[in-house]
Amino acid sequence: METQLDPMKDDLPLMANTSYMLVKHYVLDLDVDFKSKVIEGSIVLFFETGSQYMKTSSASKECCQSQFDETCRMGASEPCHIPMINVSTCSSKTEYNDFTVSGTEEEATSDENSNHSNNEQTSGISSSKDCCDIEDHGNKDFLLVLDCCDLSVLKVEEVDVAAVSGIEKFTRSAKLTGISKELENLRNRIVHELVTLPSNCWKEQLYYFTHCSQAPGCGELLFSTGTWSLEIRKLGIQTPADFPHAIRIWYKTKPEGRSITWTTDQSGRPCVYTMGSPINNRALFPCQEPPIALSTWQASVRTAAGFVVLMSGENSAEPVQLREGVLSWYYYVSMPMPASTFTIAVGCWQEVKQQSFKQTAAIETNTEFSLPSSQTDFRWHEEICGHVEYPCRFQNPAARLQAVIPYRVFAPWGLMESCEEYLLQLIPQCLSAAYATLGTHPFSRLDVLIVPSNFSSLGMASPHIIFLSQSVLSGGRHLCGTRLCHEIAHAWFGLAIGARDWTEEWLSEGFATFLEDIFWARAQQLSHDEIKRQLELKALLRWRRLRDEVQNSEEELQVLRPKKESTGELSESGASVVKYGLKAEKIFMQVHYLKGYFLLRSLARTVGEVSYLASLQKFVTKFHGQLILSQDFLSTLLEDIPKQKRSGLTVESIFQNWLDTSGIPKVNIKYQEGCIFCLKKQHNFELQVTKWIQTNRRIRKSSKKKMKQDEVVFQQLLPDQLVLLLESLLEEKTLCPRILQHLERTYQLREQDAEVSH
Fold first, then answer.
1. Active-site annotation holds for 48
2. Which DSSP symbol is given to 658?
3. Is the pLDDT of residue 370 over 90?
4. CATH class of segment(s) 12-56+139-303
5. pTM of the predicted structure, to 2 decimals
6. Which CATH superfamily is domain 349-354+392-678 in?
7. Distance (Å, rounded) from C-alpha 140 to C-alpha 660?
8. 509 CB contacts (<8 Å, ≥6 apart)?
9. Catalytic residue among 487, 504, 509, 755
10. Start and end of every Peptidase M1 membrane alanine aminopeptidase domain (predicted)?
11. Domain residue spans in the chain?
């Protein structure tokens, strides 16, 4: 029985039994209907037997390599076109026309000669309860459990991959000798051969994934849906190894589904997008949610003409007209990632272009700042990557030299001018600054979309696409630049390097908050002293916010590693929970951003900024494409710190002081209070606050005539300084209306950015 959870109070359940069957690839084939507010179609899932029941030998990879040498050479040297295949298909709607992966943008994506180890990711999130007891089922059928919510599942069927033309080459290898040619076993062996192809065969692999997804069904499977899951079984099949490894699920979303939002854009036109729901993508398609389920995907999405489909994909999709008034968009990824990172946005988006601004222009970064530049330092790239095998940009010489990846900007029609004024110019500067700090961009291209006004945050990053709020477009470059830098940082921390346990959000948000300052400082090309003052001011603002949040939130939500020593443990089935994942208050909290930021800032102070950023770059090179825990980062960092600088710093002490307890570490409180005192004096900021407070009191006591004769002169302030001033004035018991008017006249508050307005 599935555990019933209170969606407003309890933990988020991850029901998929990934230890028994692991999704390796998704093929989505969908129609978007704005009249009914439904996305409908099918998804084909290709599985590999999980770690509990893996029966293949280590020799499989070698046989696969030799079997497809000739095919892979073809795929590496020529464009890969996927025509319609001559088999009966389950959907007459599906069409793939001239799928090409050899364009200029894609060449930097994949290195056909890359050499990786193929270590299986065997770690995952611990579980409080298994969904399905496989070991003690006696004669019971095996039950496949997928994460699913707010979906209408119409039919589930096994896919006859053996019916695909040309698939015979997957059955000729010597390792099939002596194995039964029973059709069901043959289908599973074909899928195994397909999902284990080496990375230099990625084009050929995608080709056959497409064809297999179009193959006819060969028998319906029994299924049932619960609050959080979809359970599938086949009569008489008792083990994961014998369960169909390619299944097709026909389904449709519900208008109230929590993974996507149906709304209108700022120009009043209908649109739908994934907005970063706490339940992730399980209300968009049935999937395996646990981070351990790293998979690739491809998707064909049909919609009415006039709409643009943007998605997490390596290719810059161009629409194909299927019939009058209907367009099809196709995207794919070859880097395995959690299904939760899949993102889609469909709307009447307009691409923002500026003819006078060249994307390929060389963007120079500030050479005076004493941070290491990675552009000429690739000594760590000589190492073999530690992730599962995929076409990796870190092994691609052209990609390693690409400071600015190709990018596009999309927005509703009414916001195009604002995007052209600031955003379009800032993207290459911020991308170049990120490259100068961390090195190789993990992803080959970037789309930036200004999402509708109901978007609940300032930004969200997904593979190959960033969502930004319209709020970042007002009040100049500052907020737009800092938020853009934050989301770009997630390409490394949050996407290319993911948390093995989702409760360790600080590994994504703490790093992005810390790195946004570094990236933005480089992008602005400030002097060393200006950068130092800017970083200190940011720290002061965040300190005040963290202090206030700690004083006004539940202690249990202030812990960065709430599962402590159980963090990262994997249950037998793979089912698990995300602690406090559905707690309503948690959505609005910033403790993982701020407390994580101050931990990283404290470590940087101990190590020294130059050495610290060099260690971050080394860490990225070592762990990209993998899932990590806090101790993976901390252990790697401490290895680079000379013993005389550690001052008793250990992984255990960091856990105790920073990650496993609520509140703020006392050592950090003392340090930050000292920094605040120095910062106020250095910026002459205390004098400015005092002037306004005295003026407020004087206005209350004096006449309007006298005030005009004794006008006070105030300094012009930067946006962050202005925020700090306003926060300080709010601590006064009373502010008279005239002082508010005076503030408006002095700083033009209505023209400032969203943070000042807030």
1. no
2. I
3. no
4. mainly beta
5. 0.84
6. Neutral Protease Domain 2 (1.10.390.10)
7. 42
8. 494, 592, 593, 596
9. 487
10. 441-658
11. 12-56+139-303, 349-354+392-678, 682-703+711-747
